[in-house]
Design brief:
By secondary structure, the chain is mainly α. It folds into two domains: about 1-30 and about 300-330, no CATH class; about 35-295, no CATH class. About 75% of the residues lie in helices and about 0% in strands. It contains twelve helices and two strands; from the N terminus they run ααααααααααααββ. The longest helix is centred in the middle third of the chain and has 34 residues, at about 155-185.
């Protein structure tokens, strides 16, 4: 009985392996069309929208977590804490973006100011949990991109909390470091001759820290052993695209979103920014998985592929599936999946 069931599983699994590129004796060919097919069949655009939504609902908890950590570390030096906040806001070029970030920081600061003692600690813990949902979502998306199994509940959440804290420190360092050249050069006597130097230095520092951020994400989050030589290109491309996007985004806002005002404009700007950021994040992961991990595209989009796989499984196997015994059935039998 066991041998018969094993043969059925092999007959079911081998066509699926061939369809997604496993079990090949020679390395699969890599092409631009193959990459585009994998990118689209993995529902990358839909998952970018999912991550953008998760970014938005995690934004306030992340801000509360950041202010909570710095509030505890710099509790005796509120001036230093305010200096860090102002430097982050002043590093943004566009007034709309500055207003949006300032609103988030004020809401987070007011929430922390109204709490004290044990309530403050509980609030920070809950904010860490809510903010870490972002990296849980990224982990789920990378499961599709890299064709890996899901982590256990405890391991996934511990990793997400660690990544959240690391993400907060890297983003703050990235913003502060990108503003350092302007502070240094503004102290020089000939400011007019150093504007180009400010621009180049700021972009260079921003690219370096963005590259480090993407390297950590692509190295740690996939549920498989990753090598640096397999992730550097995706991280480099993503960091360049992110920096170009940050430079051009204020122009995009002034050109297409200047008519949006107040909270509506704030929401639209956030949705747009985080969607393109999520798109860049997924694009880098897809580059690494296809060109370096040699993961091939699905024969169809993921929804159709899962539907066909489940249909084939229910028609051919006698092994318990979904906690019930499924047997061979005729074509006229009613669908129940």
């Amino acid at each position: 009985m066991f041998d018969q069931n094993q043969k059925m599983l092999n007959s079911l699994w081998r066509p699926i392996q061939r369809g997604i590129g496993f079990g090949q004796t020679t390395p699969p060919r890599r092409s631009a069309l193959g990459f585009i097919k994998k990118f689209l069949n993995d529902w990358s655009l839909s998952f970018a929208a999912l991550l953008a939504y998760t970014f938005i609902i995690s934004l306030l908890p992340i801000a509360v977590t950041a202010f909570g950590i710095f509030g505890l570390v710099l509790s005796d030096n509120p001036r230093a804490k305010q200096t860090i906040i102002d430097s982050i806001i002043d590093s943004l070029k566009d007034n709309h973006t500055k207003t949006a970030v300032r609103e988030v920081t004020e809401i987070a600061a007011n929430n922390l100011a109204n709490d004290a003692g044990g309530i403050l600690a509980i609030g920070i813990i809950l904010s860490i949990w809510d903010g870490s949902r972002l990296f849980v979502a990224i982990d789920d998306v990378f499961t599709i991109i890299y064709r890996t199994t899901s982590r256990s509940f405890i391991y996934q959440n511990l990793l997400s909390i660690i990544m959240l804290i690391l993400f907060i420190f890297l983003v703050i360092i990235m913003f502060v470091a990108s503003s350092i050249p302007s502070f240094v050069i503004n102290a020089l006597p000939n400011k007019n001759d150093t504007q180009f130097g400010i621009f180049v230095a700021g972009i260079s520092v921003s690219i370096v820290f963005a590259f480090i951020l993407f390297m950590f994400i692509y190295l740690i989050i996939p549920n498989k052993k990753m090598k640096l030589k397999h992730i550097w290109l995706g991280a480099l491309i993503a960091s360049f695209l992110l920096d170009i996007f940050i430079v051009l985004f204020p122009l995009y806002i002034r050109r297409f979103m200047d008519s949006f005002l107040g909270l509506i404009g704030f929401a639209v700007i956030l949705i747009t920014f985080f969607y393109y950021f999520s798109f860049i994040l997924i694009l880098g992961a897809q580059i690494n998985s296809y060109f370096f991990e040699l993961i091939q595209p699905l024969p169809d989009d993921i929804g159709s592929f899962l539907s066909q796989t489940v249909s084939r499984t229910l028609r051919t196997t006698t092994i318990p599936i979904f906690n019930s015994n499924q047997y061979l059935r005729s074509r006229r039998s009613q669908r129940y999946y």
